[in-house]
Design a protein that fits this description.
single chain, mainly alpha, Arc Repressor Mutant, subunit A, two-stranded parallel ribbon, 3% strand
């Protein structure tokens, strides 16, 4: 995977405000890659960014991450859905327009992405 793509995803995650979440698909649209690529990057490189703010399209997270996420979300004011697997993404999704502007500023020094 190209280093600049990894860096773009990680910088995008860093722009997600406290108390909000985004989906893998939201980040994929922002960066210009697929949601599965975002998931792979997060799995391999995401431990040093605010990974708990990235969910699937339903607001859910893998079961293995839920114990740690519960504590982090509670500190940020994000409530769990009744099923305990995630949050109601519609209630906690970051403002994607603002996120897009913040992302563009955060990656300005990386230059134009390679279209592949």
């Amino acid at each position: 995977m190209e280093d600049v793509v990894v860096e773009r995803v990680l910088r995008a995650v860093e722009q997600v405000p406290r108390g909000t979440v985004v989906s893998y698909g939201d980040l994929a649209a922002l960066v210009g890659i697929g949601p599965r690529q975002v998931g792979s990057i997060m799995r391999l490189y995401g431990s040093n960014v605010t990974w708990w703010r990235v969910t699937n399209a339903s607001g859910d997270l893998p079961v293995g991450l839920l114990d740690e996420v519960r504590e982090r979300w509670a500190r940020e004011g994000i409530l769990l859905k009744p099923n305990g697997r995630g949050c109601r993404i519609a209630e906690y999704r970051a403002d994607l327009e603002v996120l897009g502007r913040d992302y563009e500023r955060a990656v300005a020094d990386l230059g134009t992405p390679d279209p592949g």
